[in-house]
């Protein structure tokens, strides 16, 4: 919404306040001023009178004009096709500055001296879309009575500031000058006088209005005869331009002006184009059509509200008029419409047809029924004044329901209970008075009759907001809620923070990627067939479906950074996977990571190593250990993993025997598709991990007796996993085998191709006594025996 | 007899002249060995009487001890010197780069979330969570945004079905939490989470971003409590010298509703180019829970009052660090992420 200072000050005394001061006050009272601008920043402009116009001797398209500037008459060469003798025009004098850094100097144009410039509106800095059609390609021509020699910008009011207001959706009352005047009057605490007398009328006997839809509650129609279509006066055109509306002709301009003034959208029909002396308001039939003012045929549905003349549709109620009854240059008799339409109906129609307009947004936010008749009368009077129209006191109307005024009971106690301060009756009374909300005060309770213009106020809390915003939020105190609660993280939240800590200390950087992805990317790294959650209204194919896995986006991050020479990328993300389980959307919290390149500890010491499977496995084990679940975890070779994993370097991660994730090398094909170097990834479903009840940690007394270490090396079948071998050893540990570590794995010379040598370090300990050689040997021999017998192992000597 | 004195004198002189342990060892063998001068001098022992033998024996012993002591002292000194030389040779350039495994860095948004969470945990709040794929009912209707409400346009949504959408704010978590409490206060939660709006991504818009909302409900919660809470938060988050102000605003789920501004970091409210001469920077929206929302959440609005607030951690990070493009939060250019390797 645009607010023109010139218009505002015709209603309110603003002599003691600057626009900037007012802007701050408005913003702090909830009417946010986003910016203040002037319609034109030009200088040194005067109203000129074209006394003579002759053809330029050397140039066909130029005219040489003698222009009376009040104090002097200057010769000005003008290139506009519409310049003519006798016109009042805007002249930029020598020394004038125009927007865009143009400075007017004495000049010779094709040999003819020119002392100034006759300006177009565009040259003054007016936006194209606001310039009337007839001045689009030429200079602006002012009214005949424009005072020669006067400051042209002041004459037009273009030197007055315009406020750009950002209104919250509830404040539709501020979509009009009247509304803003009430509001600003309340904020500045100064009296407002607006003519609120409803005009009297008699019912037109020759014209009828019928309402046949619940979506229209009030409809007035009034005839204005004998109008002369012409340009509006300059003051009216300026007001419209300042409000962001392009002037068209006097009839249309008047309806727009009254809408800006009172907030009531109006429509003007060419009365003689109506096929019957009636208006019938009804819903459209499905499939019915109307050609709107813009020449487009619109197909309608039965929720659209139509204005008809009983024979055919003549307007889409509140949205756009019909071409068949459009005002044109030959119009003489006008039928003015002022009505109240259902906000939802207007909203649905304009949204479906994409016809948002100044009119439709006002209907959508509810118009004030108290101003419907007022607006009609105001427009009719302006038509008489500015278009030579003739009116009588008749009009036609129909009303199906009356809006009941909102009355709210507001105990003073309630105000202070909500705000937490102690406002007096006087302060509350004063703010209600400033707002011009009639009220009665009985005991300590206010009974407030909310004016119909403020349809946003329906409950006591709405009034409390009005009171404190006018009184000032700076009057609130700074207190804290008096309640005893204790703040703490849940087990799950704590564990999640812990996981992140381990990953961060392991050198992985946390990333956040989008949850929305493309169908193509959603084919990667999926462990089973998920039913996708797809958007009905995506902005692009790239963000059209919710992700099944975090890994595709993580690989994109690896690729993005490697392309920028950040080769060693270690990243993780915690985020959801989304899919449908039947009709139910499901979200599972995943922990995923991607590691690519080298861990470089020191360049000059050559302390760097390539990330491999076991490095990543180690990080995961650290997490499991910190979470207290390591004993429940197994890494199991997955020789037929999902296509994006290396079939030889991938493991499933099992928690109590259930798969909760995968860790492995990315398949070379996928590596190529994402354009990354060798990369290891993992993806864990955190839900089972974080839900797990963890056994409490107990203390184990430290043994006072020395440990005994024995190493063994056995040659076993190549396919025998290290995990199997270790658990076979442990099986025979007899309570004194404390630990088994693999410290070497060897294949090659001296070992058969189908075999490998595995070296294990065994640690024995007894908490009760010092172990003897005999005791250790007995267990040791049992282990060897077991391996030889059951695992085809051969002890290396 | 004089011989031994002479030998001792000579030995001590030689010991003192030794330059290293090898030389010292030679001196030791020379004087204390079986063929050394002391042994030689002892040969006359058999020709002496008992008294003389005793005297010679003592003298020889004393001489041996004296030489041994001198040898030991010298040896220890030489060892020290040798160690010193060795250590000097081992000198390193301590200014060479260290050997370390680089640490990872938490995502900036998560850092801010954690900071905010910790402030509110300290004030007795708990952290509530909820689904991102939400029903229209929880996302809008329970928050006083019935179907067709114009204010729904403030939050253009990604729809999945007629009824399901990506949540446009974390308020549905508040709605769900209220139902969980079954009309019994107090409620004191914050809800951080991802939200989605149908916006084109550009420097200031992102179709995905993070929100943290707070909700407090109890019998006597006032708007002054809201202001006090947010003033405390702003001081903890932005610095003790920062103040807040309320500006009236509109949200369908709160009444009264306010935008909350914090004094500009640079000018502290005086006005400067950074705050566009307003002295303040908008950081969050807040208000008193609308009675309709209380009622739909199962709380009796005649008995309970509450406040709610919502803020964007990315926006807070943008203000705090002067970041010029919100897309940086989702591009994960590691040259960006790694800049935030410490707090403050």
What's the short version?
The complex is a heterodimer of chains A (797) and B (344). Chain A is an alpha+beta fold and 797 residues long.
Low-pLDDT parts of chain B are none
Largest sheet of chain A: 7 strands, mixed
CATH-assigned fold name of the largest domain in chain B: BirA Bifunctional Protein, domain 2
Structural class of chain A: alpha+beta
Count the domains of chain A. Answer: 6
Radius of gyration of chain B: 43 Å
Order the strands across the largest sheet of chain B as they lie in space.
1-4-5-9-8-7-6
CATH class of the largest domain in chain A: Alpha Beta
What is the structural class of chain B?
A: alpha+beta
Judging by the overall fold, what is the CATH architecture of the largest domain in chain A? 2-Layer Sandwich
The coarse silhouette of chain B is rod-shaped
Strand tally of chain A is: 43
CATH homologous superfamily title of the largest domain in chain B: Bira Bifunctional Protein, Domain 2
What's the average pLDDT of chain B? Answer: 91
Total count of helical runs of at least 4 residues of chain B: 12
Task: Using a beta-carbon cutoff below 8 angstroms, give the protein chain pair with the largest interface and the number of residues from each chain.
Answer: A-B, 93 and 82 residues
Would you mind describing this structure in some detail?
The complex is a heterodimer of chains A (797) and B (344). Chain A is built from 20 helices and 43 strands. Chain A has 797 residues and is α+β, with helices and mostly antiparallel strands. Chain A has 6 domains: 66 residues, Phenylalanyl-tRNA Synthetase, Chain B, domain 1 (2-Layer Sandwich); 112 residues, Nucleic acid-binding proteins (OB fold (Dihydrolipoamide Acetyltransferase, E2P)); 198 residues, 3-Layer(bba) Sandwich (Phenylalanyl-tRNA Synthetase, Chain B, domain 3), CATH 3.50.40; 69 residues, Phenylalanyl-tRNA Synthetase, Chain B, domain 1; 201 residues, Bira Bifunctional Protein, Domain 2 (BirA Bifunctional Protein, domain 2, 2-Layer Sandwich), CATH 3.30.930; 88 residues, 2-Layer Sandwich (Alpha-Beta Plaits), CATH 3.30.70. Chain B is of the alpha+beta class. Chain B folds into 2 domains: 88 residues, no CATH class; 230 residues, Bira Bifunctional Protein, Domain 2 (BirA Bifunctional Protein, domain 2). In chain B, strand 6 and strand 7 form a beta hairpin. Chain B is rod-shaped and about 135 Å long. The model of chain B has no long low-confidence stretch (mean pLDDT 91).
């Amino acid at each position: 919404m645009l607010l023109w200072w010139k218009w505002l000050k015709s209603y309110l005394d603003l002599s003691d306040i600057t626009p900037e001061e007012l802007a701050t006050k408005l913003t702090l009272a909830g009417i946010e001023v986003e910016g203040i601008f002037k319609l034109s920043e030009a200088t040194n402009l005067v109203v000129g009178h074209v006394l003579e116009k002759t053809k330029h001797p050397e140039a066909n398209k130029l005219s040489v004009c003698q222009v009376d500037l009040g104090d002097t008459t200057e010769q000005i060469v003008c290139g506009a096709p519409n310049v003519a003798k006798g016109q009042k025009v805007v002249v930029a004098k020598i020394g004038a500055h125009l927007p865009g850094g143009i400075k007017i100097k004495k000049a010779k144009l094709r040999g003819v001296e020119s002392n100034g410039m006759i300006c177009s509106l565009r040259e003054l800095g007016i936006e194209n879309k606001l310039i009337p059609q007839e001045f689009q390609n030429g200079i602006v021509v002012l009214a005949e009575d424009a005072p020669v020699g006067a400051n042209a910008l002041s004459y037009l009011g273009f030197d007055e500031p315009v406020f750009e207001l950002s209104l919250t959706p509830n404040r539709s009352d501020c979509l009009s000058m009247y509304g803003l005047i009430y509001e600003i009057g309340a904020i500045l605490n100064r009296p407002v006088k607006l003519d609120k007398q409803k005009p009297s009328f008699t019912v037109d006997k020759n014209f009828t209005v019928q309402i046949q839809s619940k979506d229209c509650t009030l409809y007035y129609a009034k005839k204005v005869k004998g109008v002369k279509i012409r340009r509006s006066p300059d003051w009216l055109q300026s007001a419209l331009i300042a409000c962001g509306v392009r002037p068209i002709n006097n009839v249309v301009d008047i309806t727009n002006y009254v809408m800006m003034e009172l907030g009531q959208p109006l429509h003007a029909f060419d009365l003689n184009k109506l096929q019957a002396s009636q208006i019938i308001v009804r819903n459209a039939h499905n499939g019915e059509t109307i050609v709107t003012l813009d020449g487009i045929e619109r197909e309608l549905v039965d929720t659209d509200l139509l204005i008809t003349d009983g024979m055919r549709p003549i307007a889409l109620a509140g949205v756009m008029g019909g071409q068949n009854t459009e005002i044109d240059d030959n119009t003489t008799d006008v039928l003015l419409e002022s009505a109240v339409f259902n906000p939802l109906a207007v909203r649905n129609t304009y949204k479906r047809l994409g016809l948002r307009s100044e009119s439709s947004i006002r209907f959508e936010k509810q118009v004030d029924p108290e101003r419907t008749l007022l607006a009609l009368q105001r427009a009719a009077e302006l038509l008489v004044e500015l278009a030579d129209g003739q009116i009588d006191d008749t009009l036609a109307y129909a009303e199906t329901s009356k809006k009941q005024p909102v009355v709210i009971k507001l105990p003073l106690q309630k105000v202070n209970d909500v705000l937490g301060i102690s406002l007096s009756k006087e302060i509350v009374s004063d703010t209600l008075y400033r707002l011009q909300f009639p009220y009665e005060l009985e005991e300590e309770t206010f009974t407030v009759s909310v004016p119909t213009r403020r349809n946003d106020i329906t409950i006591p809390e709405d009034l409390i907001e009005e009171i404190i915003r006018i009184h000032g939020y700076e009057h609130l105190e700074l207190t804290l809620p008096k309640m005893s609660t204790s703040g703490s993280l849940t087990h799950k939240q704590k564990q999640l923070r812990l996981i992140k800590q381990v990953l961060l200390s392991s050198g992985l950087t946390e990333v956040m990627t989008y949850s929305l992805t493309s169908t193509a990317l959603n084919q990667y790294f999926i462990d089973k067939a998920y039913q996708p959650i797809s958007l009905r209204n995506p902005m692009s194919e790239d963000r059209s479906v919710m992700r099944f896995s975090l890994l595709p986006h993580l690989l994109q991050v690896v690729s993005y950074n490697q392309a920028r020479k950040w080769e060693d990328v270690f990243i993780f993300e915690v985020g959801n996977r989304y899919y449908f389980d039947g009709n139910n959307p499901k979200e599972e919290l995943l922990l995923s990571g991607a590691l690519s390149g080298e861990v470089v500890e020191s360049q000059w010491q050559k302390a760097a190593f390539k990330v491999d499977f076991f490095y990543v496995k180690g990080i995961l084990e650290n997490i499991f250990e910190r979470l207290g679940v390591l004993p429940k975890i197994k890494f199991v070779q997955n020789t037929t993993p999902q296509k994006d994993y290396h079939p030889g370097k991938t493991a499933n991660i099992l928690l109590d025997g259930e798969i909760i994730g995968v860790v492995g090398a990315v398949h070379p094909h996928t590596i190529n598709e994402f354009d990354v170097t060798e990369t290891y990834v993992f993806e864990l479903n955190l839900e089972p991990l974080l839900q797990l009840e963890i056994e409490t940690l107990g203390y184990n007394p430290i043994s006072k007796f020395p440990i005994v270490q024995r190493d063994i090396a056995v040659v076993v079948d190549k396919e025998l996993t290290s995990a199997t071998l270790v658990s076979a050893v442990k099986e025979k540990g007899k309570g004194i085998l404390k630990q088994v570590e693999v410290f070497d794995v060897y294949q090659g010379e001296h070992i058969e191709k189908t075999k490998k040598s595995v070296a294990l370090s065994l640690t024995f300990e007894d908490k009760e006594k010092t172990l003897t050689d005999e005791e250790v040997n007995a267990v040791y021999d049992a282990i060897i025996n077991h391996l030889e017998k059951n695992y085809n192992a051969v002890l290396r000597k | 007899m004089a011989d031994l004195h002479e030998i001792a004198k000579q030995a001590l002189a030689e010991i003192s002249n030794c330059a290293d342990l090898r030389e010292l060892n030679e001196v030791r063998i020379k004087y204390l060995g079986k063929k050394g001068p002391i042994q030689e001098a002892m040969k006359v022992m058999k020709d002496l009487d008992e008294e003389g033998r005793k005297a010679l024996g003592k003298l020889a012993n004393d001489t041996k001890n004296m030489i041994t002591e001198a040898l030991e002292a010298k040896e220890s000194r030489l060892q020290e010197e040798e160690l010193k030389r060795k250590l000097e040779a081992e000198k390193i350039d301590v200014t060479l780069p260290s050997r370390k495994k680089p640490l990872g860095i938490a995502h900036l948004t998560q850092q801010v979330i954690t900071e905010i969470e910790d402030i509110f945990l300290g004030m007795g709040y708990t952290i509530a969570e909820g689904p991102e794929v939400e029903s229209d009912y929880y996302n809008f209707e329970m928050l006083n945004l019935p179907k067709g409400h114009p204010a729904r346009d403030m939050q253009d949504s990604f729809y999945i079905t007629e009824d399901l959408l990506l949540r446009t704010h974390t308020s549905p978590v508040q709605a769900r939490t209220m139902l969980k409490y079954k009309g019994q206060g107090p409620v004191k939660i914050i809800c951080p989470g991802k939200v989605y709006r149908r916006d084109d991504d550009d420097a200031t818009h992102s179709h995905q971003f993070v929100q943290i909302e707070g909700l407090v409900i109890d019998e006597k919660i006032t708007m002054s409590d809201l202001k006090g809470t947010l003033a405390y938060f702003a001081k903890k988050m932005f610095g003790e010298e920062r103040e807040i102000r309320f500006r009236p605003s509109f949200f369908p789920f709160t009444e009264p509703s306010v935008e909350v501004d914090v004094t500009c970091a640079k000018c502290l409210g005086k006005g400067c180019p950074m705050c566009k001469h307003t002295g303040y920077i908008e950081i969050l929206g807040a208000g008193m829970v609308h009675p309709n929302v209380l009622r739909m959440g199962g709380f009796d609005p005649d008995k309970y009052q509450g406040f709610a607030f919502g803020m964007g951690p990315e926006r807070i990070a943008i203000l705090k660090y002067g970041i010029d493009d919100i897309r940086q939060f989702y591009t994960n250019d590691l040259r960006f992420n790694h800049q935030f390797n410490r707090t403050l």
